[in-house]
Every structure is written in C-alpha cells, then in structure tokens.
Write a structure and sequence with these properties.
- About 45% of the residues lie in helices and about 15% in strands.
- It is α/β, with parallel strands linked by helices.
- It has two domains: about 40-275, Type I PLP-dependent aspartate aminotransferase-like (Major domain) (Aspartate Aminotransferase, domain 2, 3-Layer(aba) Sandwich); about 280-405, Aspartate Aminotransferase, domain 1 (Alpha-Beta Complex).
- The strands form four sheets. It has a seven-stranded mixed beta sheet with strand order 4-10-9-8-7-5-6, with helices on both faces. A four-stranded antiparallel beta sheet has the order 11-12-15-14.
- The two termini are about 30 Å apart.
- The protein binds pyridoxal-5'-phosphate.
Length: about 400
C-alpha cells in the first residue's frame, strides 16, 4: 500500500486542492445550493468506510462483514426520520438527480404524466427538462407562477383536472417563496394523483423548523443532503410506509449498486448536527440574511423575481441593469463573489446567457456572517454589476472581500 501522504505522493492533486481551499476561504460563496460542511462531516466522508461493499439494506445484505455498516446506515435513517418526521427513509441515493429518478421509477410506468413546475419558473432539470432521459420516459406537463410571483395554484388545479397526472411534483431550484403543501395535496386528492416534493434546496430550512414541511403530508419527498442541510454531497428519499418497499427496490437493485457508506456516515453526522438546537438558529439566520440582501438590492432598483424571498435564495432579473446574467457572473467571479447565471421566468434569453443571476446565503451564514455583512455585500454586488467592465473596480472589491473573509475563517 502507498503510505505516503497526498502531499508527498501526488503534489498535482494536493496543490489543486490547496488552491481550491484558498478560493473557498477568500471568496464569498453565494451559490444557493452550496455550503461548507463541518470538519466532523469531512472526517466521516474521508473515512475507511469507503472500503466496504454493502449491497442491500440493513440486516439484509449481499456481502459479509456488514455489521458495522448496518449500524452506520441505521443511525442515518433514524436521525433523518427524527429530523423530518418521516415514516420511511432511504439514505442510499448517490445524489439528488438519482433520488428523483429512483422515485419516479418506483411508482410510475413509462408514459405516465407528471405535473411539475416550468423550468424557467424555478423547476429543476430532473423535473422534465427535454435534455434529460426522464423527459423521453414520462409525459411532463408544467405549471408556472402567477403575476405576483407565487405558484399559480388555480392553474395547477386546472391542469391537474385536465391532464389527470399520476404524480404532482413540487420543489424547486430557483423559486424563493414558501409552498402551500396543503393546497397541492387537496388538488392531488381530487384527481387521485400521488404527491412528491423535491426539497433539495430547502431541506435545512425545513429541518431547522423555518419552512413548511411536506413530509407528514406527501407520498414521497426527495432531497439532496449537501445544500442548506449542510451535509455531504448526496441524496435521500422519504416516503409513507405504503411506498417503502417500492422505493427501496427502485433505489437498489433497480437503479444503483453498492451504497457509498462513507457518504452515508457523513450524512448521519450532518443529521446529528441538524438535530442540535443551534441548527434552528442557523436556519433562521440564513433567511434573515436573504431578507436583508433583498431589502438592500430593492433599494438599489434590482428586480427580485417572484416578488420577494421567503427562503435562502434570490433570483434577480438584471434586464434593467444593462448586463446579462453571464456578464454579471464573470464580473462577480473576478471580484471574489461566486453566484450563478440563471434563467428568469419566461426568459427571452438562453440558458447559457440568461437574463438573471441566482444567489443565496447558506454558505455565508455558515461562516458566521450576519446582517451587517449582508448590507456590505449588497453594496459590493451593486458596485460590481454597475462597473462590470472596469477591472480596477473589480480588483478593489476583491481586496476588500479577502479582508472580510479573513475575519470569518473556514477550516483553520
Ligand atoms: C430541486 C433540486 N433537485 C435535485 C437536484 C439534483 O441534485 P444533484 O445535483 O445532487 O444530482 C438539484 C440540484 O441542484 C435541485 O436543485
């Protein structure tokens, strides 16, 4: 076995990791789907559990030597159940997209109709984008948000009555408002449709008691574990007991092979963190920070899509600022602020060069930044967007950002 350290054996990879560490330490991470995991989560993720095969489920594996792996997976399941009030949990999905695909394949047949959110209004690729395999397999139809920026529940009801979907799907990547799961459940009940929520973005806000929780109400709830939930990169499916067998069979052997138990152990650690009382404080601060950004940006005449934010993210239409989402993303990158370009509802531009940017506060909040820092960051966002072609302005902002980040160290 090679017993050298990474630095000794592979200086190429080591030095790239160090550069990325510096980028994370010195920049403002504002991609709303990103976060910083704790050292404890990292330790579990880098543990010897990566060595073990364990196809199957707790107490019922295709491999020997799984007694400790079973303990790990059971703890992850128990903690997730406690966190969300779930009847049944599968912690094996490798990420959010595989979780969604396994969930569809568990309860639907090819050709079945899924009613989900229009992508430019905040839906995710796995909710029926024509570029995905799922779009060839299922018949996706799409509802949108209304003029006020809220899910158009009337349109959703009309479409459900017209199309009789097998599944009504909620949960979004760029939508910034609260979701009324009761209305959606009542619509689905009327049309005898199943309900599925993909809470990938807001799982941490739900776990922290700050947003509505669909788990007690919906048939199936999928999530990622690496966004607001602040765990390792991975997926998870929660469901009512009546779907448990189908969901489990769909994940394995239907769709995946051996579970990544090092990753599952890191999920368990993150769930334990999210069960601590201070996680509620964290979740609340994420939302307070997003609200401050909203207020400050509105003062500077920025167009916040969907009217406002009720969660951790803001989708901003830059059309009135004379800059595209792509130009803004590039300029912000140069200044040390990481965001992503994003389509806005009914965007006349293309996904690679859309009209908007999407930004959020989970990672900044993990660093300990609060209201005062958000006011400063809003001012920097405005300066960079207004002077996006002025390299010396961007360099000046970058210097100030490095100074701020040094006050909120990450992994030292
Ligand atoms: C709502 C939603 N679902 C699913 C996913 C897919 O997750 P992953 O990238 O882990 O496959 C994302 C990722 O951004 C998401 O926002």
């Amino acid at each position: 076995m090679n017993r050298q350290t990474l630095a000794q054996f592979d200086s190429d990879i080591f030095s790239i990791i160090e550069k990325e560490r510096k980028r994370q330490e010195e920049g403002l991470e504002m991609i709303p789907s990103e976060n910083f995991v704790s050292p404890a989560v990292l330790e579990a993720l880098g543990s010897i559990l990566t060595n073990k095969y364990s196809e199957g489920y707790v107490g019922n594996r295709y491999y020997g030597g799984c007694e400790f792996i079973d303990n790990v997976e059971q703890l992850a399941i128990d903690r997730a159940r406690q966190l969300f009030g779930a009847e049944h949990v599968n912690v094996q999905p490798l990420s959010g997209a595989p979780a969604n695909i396994a969930a569809y394949l568990a309860v639907l047949k090819p050709g079945d109709t899924i009613l989900g959110m229009d992508l430019s209004h905040g839906g995710h690729l796995t909710h029926g984008s024509p570029v995905t395999h799922m779009a060839n397999l299922f018949n996706f139809i799409r509802y949108k948000t209304n003029a006020q920026g809220v899910i158009d529940y009337d349109e959703l009801r009309d479409m459900a009555r017209r199309h009789k979907p097998k599944l009504v799907l909620v949960g979004y990547s760029a939508y910034s408002r609260e979701i009324d799961y009761h209305i959606i459940k009542s619509i689905a009940d009327e049309t005898e449709s199943m309900t599925m929520a993909d809470v990938a973005h807001i799982a941490g806000l739900i776990a922290g008691g700050q947003m509505n929780n669909p788990v007690p109400l919906f048939d199936i709830v999928t999530t990622t574990t690496h966004k607001t939930l602040r765990g390792p990169r991975g997926g998870m499916i929660m469901c009512k007991e009546k779907w448990a067998k189908q969901i489990d069979k769909s994940v394995f052997p239907g769709f995946q092979g051996g579970p990544h138990e090092h990753n599952i152990s890191a999920k368990a650690v993150a769930f334990k963190e999210a069960l601590q009382p201070d996680f509620k404080v964290y979740a609340k601060q994420i939302m307070t920070n997003a609200k401050i950004l909203e207020e400050e940006l509105k003062k500077r005449d920025y167009t916040i899509c969907f009217g406002q934010t009720d969660n951790h993210l803001l989708l901003i239409n830059l059309a009135n600022k004379g800059v595209t989402g792509k130009e803004a993303q590039i300029a912000l990158d140069k200044a040390g602020i990481t965001v992503n370009k994003n389509m806005v509802p009914d965007d006349p531009r293309s996904p690679m060069n859309p009209s908007g940017i999407r930004l959020g506060t989970p990672a900044l909040t993990t660093r300990g930044m609060k209201e005062a820092e958000m006011r400063q960051i809003a001012a920097w966002l405005d300066t960079v967007i207004a002077h996006h072609a002025n390299e010396s302005v961007l360099a000046g902002v970058k210097k100030d950002i490095i100074a701020l980040c040094q006050k909120y160290p990450l992994y030292v």
